[in-house]
Amino acid sequence: MIPSDTTPFPLWALLTIYSKAERECYIDYMAGFKALVDYLGPVVVTRKESPKDYSLLYNYPMQQMSIELGIPQDTIIDSYIYEVPHLISEASE
Q1: DSSP 5
Q2: Which of 2, 51, 67, 80 has its CA 20 to 30 A from that of 73?
Q3: 14 part of a folded domain
């Protein structure tokens, strides 16, 4: 199934894919990540709680994800902390 340009794709799912294929997404200035975002269509934040200040965790990949998605780095890191590990552990059970 090919994602539609109008079907929203959850941020946590994008981050799960990124965490599994980080090397492929990271090379050539995050070209793989940008292509993935273009393919998946609009990315939406599903966690409704306000993120905390995670500025100590900022790095180049987070900055590039933030620029590409138009989502603050704090929101991306918050999703990694609260959504991605929980879902990965559920899938492995």
Answers
A1: T
A2: 2
A3: yes
Whole-number Å distance between alpha carbons of 27 and 85:
24
Query: Which range marks the domain in which residue 19 is found?
Result: 9-92
State yes or no: pLDDT of 28 exceeds 70: yes
Letter string b/e over residues 42-73, b meaning 16 or more CB atoms within 10 A of that residue's CB: ebebeeeeebeebeeeeeeebebbbeebebeb
The whole-number average pLDDT for the span 50-65 is 88
pLDDT number for residue 1: 47
Is there a domain that residue 37 lies in? Answer: yes
CB-CB contact of 87 with 52 (8 Å): no
Distance separating alpha carbons of residues 43 and 56, to the nearest angstrom:
24
